[in-house]
Amino acid sequence: MPRHIGIVACSAEGAALCYRTICLEGAELLGPHAHPEVSMHGHNFADYVKCIEANDWAGVAELMLSSADKLAKAGADFLIAPVNTVHQAFDLVEHRSPRPWLHIAIEVANEAKRHGYKRLGVLGTRALMEGPVYAEKLKAAGIDHRIPRAEQRGRIHRIIFDELVQGVFLPQTQAYLTEVIRTMKDEGCDAVVLGCTEIPLVLTQEQSPLPMLDSTRLLARAALRKAVES
To answer: Nearest CA to 126 among 146, 153, 164?
Structure first.
């Protein structure tokens, strides 16, 4: 029997895309209409936003651990969080968790290594772009990275919270993100990390000037592999 996947949800759009990917792509491993058992728990997103804006990573960790406990009681064998920013609290969570976790940035770094990428552009919330989550995991993998300029980081952050997490996907936003990625290409990046789990809903690979590392779907696929491994 495949292992039971527990999803620690944060924003609705990212969690929904992760769940949908697991269910649809599970059939490729398990047969028509089949996928591993999946449970999901999410706290009030406003509680996460309040902690992130206050730089309260201990508070973020408590929310994640509360979801982890509920999912463990529901039978989950391991856990994933399809939201990049909260991984800044991962070190406060992992050793206290009732179940093991996959780390979204490690899965992205593994995919980048598989393709031989040397320098990645990273898009996401301000805390994600300026914080340690990808900086540390990419450095450990021997991969360089770049983030957008300060004014671009501010605008991308506002786009995420004012539009994407609320299910608003605008053509002008797609055009702006495309221009940011083109700038990263000019700076020598050979791929771009979609380090906000909602960006794949507004930007497709065909529109991107660089190959995209879709953190949401990469995490979902890693969870599928772990669920079915012997």
So the answer is: 153
- Residue 42 sits in a domain whose CATH number is 3.40.50.1860
85 and 123, same domain (yes or no): no
Q: Give the tens place of pLDDT for each residue, 166-215.
A: 999 999 999 999 999 999 999 999 999 999 999 999 999 999 999 999 99
Q: Which of 185, 182, 192 is nearest to 215 (CA)?
A: 192
CA–CA distance from 229 to each of 30, 58, 71, 93, 130 (Å)?
12, 33, 21, 25, 35
Which tokens is 183 given?
Answer: 């700038």
Q: Rounded CA gap, 158 and 154, in Å?
A: 6
Residue 81 and residue 146 share a domain: no
pTM (predicted TM-score) = 0.96
Are 83 and 128 contained in the same domain? no
Instruction: Kindly list the strands in the beta sheet with 212-214, ordered across the sheet, starting from the edge strand earlier in the chain.
Output: 144-146, 119-123, 191-194, 212-214
